[in-house]
Amino acid sequence: MSKARTSLARTGAVHFALIAYTLVALFPVFLTIANSFKSRNAIFREPLAVPTPETFSLIGYETVLKQGDFIGYFQNSVIVTVVSIALVLLFGAMAAFALSEYRFRGNTLMGLYLALGIMIPIRLGTVAILQGMVATNLVNTLTALILVYTAQGLPLAVFILSEFMRTVSDDLKNAGRIDGLSEYAIFFRLVLPLVRPAMATVAVFTMIPIWNDLWFPLILAPAEPTKTITLGSQIFIGQFVTNWNAVLSALSLAIFPVLILYVIFSRQLIRGITAGAVK
Amino acid sequence: MGSLQLKSIRKAFGGHEVLKGIDLEVKDGEFVIFVGPSGCGKSTLLRTIAGLEDATSGSVRIDDLEVGHVAPAKRGIAMVFQSYALYPHLTVKDNMGLGLKQAGVPRAEIDEKVAKAAGMLSLEPYLARRPAELSGGQRQRVAIGRAIVREPKLFLFDEPLSNLDAALRVNTRLEIARLHRSLKATMIYVTHDQVEAMTLADKIVVLNAGRIEQVGSPMELYNRPANLFVAGFIGSPQMNFIEGERLGDTSAKTVGIRPEHIGLSRDGGDWKGKVIHVEHLGADTIVYLESERVGPLTARLFGEHRYAADDIVHATPVIGAMHRFDADGRVIKTGE
């Protein structure tokens, strides 16, 4: 029975490590949300305390909702993130399919070229991108952001997805060809459902930097109607005075959409893993 | 309907030539098996016939029609894969009917054909299930059913039994033989298992390193192998090869004798030797020995025999069962 005991000790150690990590990871989130419901004085007096009836205040949320078009910022962020993810997944998967499935001259070179973007930050090209957007009259539109984020997300998507697509059974694709499925049908109906876990991973990796980005919204779309939530929150951070109630409330609100998207993708992830594959 | 002609098929991947000129004629209703060691090109040849690979040169004709530029779905073929390759998101019924659905066959007709094929393979109870809910044998039956439903001119099997366990393999083998009799269809079957080849085939094609070594019925290959490769590949345990010089036979470089054509005796015989290892299989006893004159020998005796390691025995070959090969490995024809 020594085997059972050691495994109990091991499980205990693993759980201790996981719980400790969870606490560390959740602490800033807890701090942000708890303090967003407190009055200004309470935030500074006891930053670690949970809101009590005396210190409870919704002043932060009231400021956020009153000042500026916050619903609009939200909407902008959601539109930009969702459309970019959709485009990254679609084009990334198509490129990955071509690279993994077809033999053609320059296949490996093309794969390397597409993966180059992982190593070179897209921000290096900001000036050129801005000039391009000015020339095409796309400054201060959400389209500009979507295009840039799609370009930013594609390299990693192509890299991860092409590795996964190589693992999809050739026999399955060939069976589809013999049954008369077109290459598009093979891609959409046979291959994509099987690489769904990888798609979910790519979606999560693509989503977070886009949602949190301040750089490109500030440069390409700083106008009021196209501000994203990250840019919108900046108005509460001043050089001399920062409205902490409002900043914390805005951040708390900004957590939820990401959380919802994450839940959606992680469920896909689990479903993808459990669905029966070839054998 | 269902004949196939291959003319000087070559296939190269990059600079590496996998098929080096294959000529073959398959008549309507024949069961032809491609057999050979791993990497001999047998699967590539099957894929070329299916249209999944394009031949670098040469022509593939099905029913006297050149199909070199015809898509796989339009060649009138059906293929069964080693890994079953069932569509994981479709039910058994939809898996079997997809090919017809893509070809625009009316639903009622598809249902009828699927029901008929399911009846032949006893798959009726599983029609509403998905592949993940079936056992390996059932999945392979569904894959075979998917091929039957298409009513193809040619059935192509790519090592269909390799993923099944031994008992299931025998059952499915019988099932395929029964199907061939009842459908009278032309079937081409790839395997590396010579038992499958010997038991199923009307005609065996032995491939090695991208070339056809010999084509013939199972018994032709067993009794009259054309060269050393075929002689060594067909038959288990492998044929014994003895240098001609050791036997005082200067006209043959190598002499072959099958293990079942060697008799053993304790009292006396042609080749004296020491037993190295004995395998008791019940129906057979396989004796490995090191003989003084001709080197290592394998003998296959029928029934049980009480030989043990280190026994001294005498081996005697059956007269007339020897195969003689020249320096190029080709058989030396004896007057027949």
Count every beta strand of chain B, where a strand is a DSSP E run of 2 or more residues.
18
Poorly predicted segments of chain A: none
Count of helical stretches of chain B = 8
Task: Choose one word for the global shape of chain B.
Answer: globular
Rg over C-alpha atoms of chain A, rounded to the nearest angstrom: 24 Å
| Percent of residues in beta strands of chain B | 25-35%
The portion of residues forming beta strands of chain A comes to under 5%
In short:
The complex is a heterodimer of chains A (279) and B (336). Chain A is an all-alpha fold.
Question: What does this 3D model show about the protein?
Answer:
The complex is a heterodimer of chains A (279) and B (336). With 279 residues, chain A is mostly helical. Chain A folds into two domains: 2-57, no CATH class; 69-274, MetI-like fold (Orthogonal Bundle). Chain A has 13 helices and no strands. In chain A, helix 3 crosses helix 13 (244-274), helix 4 (70-101) runs antiparallel to helix 10 (196-212) and helix 10 runs antiparallel to helix 13. The longest helix of chain A is centred in the first third of the chain and has 35 residues, at 2-36. The radius of gyration of chain A is 24 Å and the shape is globular. The two termini of chain A are 36 Å apart. With 336 residues, chain B is α+β, with helices and mostly antiparallel strands. Chain B has two domains: 4-230, 3-Layer(aba) Sandwich (Rossmann fold), CATH 3.40.50.300; 242-325, Nucleic acid-binding proteins (OB fold (Dihydrolipoamide Acetyltransferase, E2P)), CATH 2.40.50. Chain B contains eight helices and 18 strands. Chain B has helices at residues 42-50, 92-102, 107-120, 136-149, 166-183, 194-200, 218-223, 228-233, and strands at 4-13, 16-26, 31-35, 57-62, 65-66, 77-80, 154-158, 186-191, 203-208, 211-216, 240-243, 254-257, 262-265, 271-280, 284-291, 295-302, 312-317, 323-325. The longest helix of chain B is centred in the middle third of the chain and has 18 residues, at 166-183. Chain B is globular, with a radius of gyration of 24 Å. The two termini of chain B are 37 Å apart.
